[in-house]
Amino acid sequence: MLQNPILQSPSTSHAADDSRLQSVIDLFEHLKFEDVMRLGDWYSEDCFFKDPFNEVQGLPATQQIFVHMFQELLEPRFVVLEAVARGDQCFLTWDFRFRLKSRPLQLQTIHGSSHLRWNALGRVSYHRDYWDAAEQFYEKLPLLGAVLRWIKRRLAAS
């Protein structure tokens, strides 16, 4: 049986043959507030970033998203579960773990993925995060969550 050379498992290796991938995984898994001002070491000046809440162009705007994350959350941390790389792009699946300032004892986890593209200089020029904001965020809010869970039950096939 042939192994797919594209799939990389973080538990064994973060694609040792691609230093760009290893570097960005290390960045996400060990990201600290102090690293945000150094994002230019990994991201291009004209980078594009999109997630369920933001869509921005440029390094300063991307840095501001990470600054906001550290300002609003306690102990934000990404755990990369898998990485798939081919050419100048990669796809990561991850768990984002954090605590809300309003509920510091309760660990929150969002499961998601990121699609990244590198430019010719090896910097991230495109970063798109995919995760279900309704299920993993809005449904946990007291009033809105109850309504969304009710709608979800009504639309479910079974």
TrEMBL record:
Domain SnoaL-like: 26-126
InterPro entries: NTF2-like_dom_sf (IPR032710), SnoaL-like (IPR037401)
Record-given protein name: SnoaL-like protein
Lineage: Bacteria, Pseudomonadati, Pseudomonadota, Betaproteobacteria, Burkholderiales
